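Sequence, structure tokens quoted for completeness.
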Amino acid sequence: MFMTATGRLTTLLSPDPSTNSAVVADGAVAEHVEDAYVPWLRAAAKTCTVLKPSVLAAQIEQRSSWDTDFATLSGETGIAGFTDAQWRTWGKDEDGNKRSSPRDPVDAIVALAREDCALAKKVTRLKTRGTVTGEPLDLTLAAYTVGTDEVTRAGHVPTKARTYVTAVKALFPRYKTYDRVESGSSGSGAA
């Protein structure tokens, strides 16, 4: 099960499908994550240093439980729960099928990484200025769920973001195998 890669992601994907197995910490297979998505999680996580494949996978599980038919009354769709407005900002055709859609898991995975990295860059600037304190990943996840303005006002992870941050981080062990199968690098881009 290996998908066709295009553009800049081609060189980041492993040619050996056996390294893309969706095995979780306890040895069980993550049934709801298709093996074909794992190289995309890995490639997308290389976009910035704050991300790892396990972070993206946990966010997606928390959001939609990897349900490609996920939709809410407020207009969030696909595995990453993008609205139309968010998709116009973050979405692109990443898998070369000539369609850009939040319902396309590959497009959604890479778009989520793009959004997370933009948020990581903002919270890193806030930390550098001394406006906020906390771990960059926690601040990024908080900004994802409540926005950078809320994080700035609180000066740290806001109370109303703690549940989301805790829930996502609790899912990391389920996906940690995705982080270590490659060369051990957690990303090479800037935050």
